[in-house]
Automatic annotation (TrEMBL):
Gene3D superfamilies: Inositol-pentakisphosphate 2-kinase, N-lobe (3.30.200.110). Phosphorylates Ins(1,3,4,5,6)P5 at position 2 to form Ins(1,2,3,4,5,6)P6 (InsP6 or phytate). It catalyses: 1D-myo-inositol 1,3,4,5,6-pentakisphosphate + ATP = 1D-myo-inositol hexakisphosphate + ADP + H(+). PANTHER family: INOSITOL POLYPHOSPHATE KINASE 1, INOSITOL-PENTAKISPHOSPHATE 2-KINASE. It comes from Polyodon spathula (North American paddlefish). This is Inositol-pentakisphosphate 2-kinase.
Amino acid sequence: MEVDKMDQNEWKYHGEGNKSLVVSHIQHSQVLRFLKYPAEEPGNSHKAAKEAFGHLQNIVDFSKNVMKPFLGENYVHHGEVVHLPLDFVRQLSLKVEQERPESRCDKVMDIFSGYALCLPNLTKLQTCRFSESGPPLCIEIKPKCGFLPFSSHVTKDVKHRVCRFCMHQHLKLANGKWKRMSRYCPLDLFSGNKQRMSFALKNLLQEAQNNLKIFKNGELIYGCKDDKDCLQDLNELTQHLKPYFFPANGLIHGPHCTRTVINELVNVITTALLSNSGTCRTGEIRKVHISEGRAHCDASHFHRDILRKGKGHCGLPKDCVLSKILQTQMLDNVDIEGLHPLYNRVEQYLGEFPKERLQIDGPYNENCFEKLRNSQSEDDGTVDYAVRKVQQYRVAMTAKDCSIMIALSPCSDDELPEPNLVIQTLKSRFTYSVSILDLDPKPYENIRHQYKLDGQIVNFYLKSTQAKQDSPTPNLFMDSEDCTLVLHSV
């Protein structure tokens, strides 16, 4: 990137979260991620530059030295911090302002420091070594936590039976966060059982919320731009996808069109999720099973008789993306209930010795991974043990909130990419890449909030399910691999 030749007209608004705003290059597969600040906060260029650089470099170091060793070299792109001309940044801010969702405009893009994080655009293929035969597709999935807590510190038995995601749906619905409850269950996706995975993915498509997005040539065509701005019409999505899966435009018309195309999409996603990171082969012999606790959630709507008999779990291929994420999530082996007293131990120590930060907020150097991976299992009552468990929990929380990016590019028959980078469908084939996004370190100060939220989620779920236990819920899906898609008008 030639920073002295930056032109704001070559960049466009890509998206934003609570703490950062992202723009993408119109031609090159690059994005710039800028920090955001409250609109009323006065700008101080010197302070902003120092804080922005430190914050962004911390994100790079955490991704590079902590998350990449846990999740795998091929999945994590840590990027680099770049310093941009302030005039370019300010002109770019004015350009993208009109494209931002109104609900996000309480914060403004950082125009004072000039620092940004430069990353590859993961909505486009990262392994493509030949000309693309059509606009790339990208499916972004936020899978959430894929296991039930097995810690002896858990005080409510329901946490051993119902996953956090399914319980949280009840509270989110009551708070007005979403209009309808999602029937997606993360444990189905992480099961390694293709029927359960297909069921989970179709439920995500049915009610995407902010857990699934689909991009075409970098533009969002399905999912939520923002909590209040959803593009969610399966019939319209089918029209986008049909040329990819049935390029000859034959054999697929009428009422079965949506169902057939969605089945093809789900099969491609499942294949990519089960592929090996090094060789991209499916069907790896070595499987990773959840050795602790149960492998299914009581709130899942998938074949309950099969789940009760324990026949719905196959295990994940050892180095597939879901396996890597799940193993990292399971660094949280004491649950938030067991972690909270350890957090209080650290807080008490910092209260007595306020000048010591115990490397809680970095630096995230090359030694961090070994310390976290080899942390002792028995509590010896020391602050050092508490700090390590807190750090393990934060890494696990990052893995629980990460996103998987599956980029697909149509591949014609006369092109010969590496065979292990190809997914073959009924009428077409794709080259693909799998990456992991959203790997920022979770704030240490957020642990107290997580403890309170955990109690709220569990208590509300118990209260709401007890009130509804005599009211049967209509099953929107058939109890088979081919679930029925219910289309909501938007």
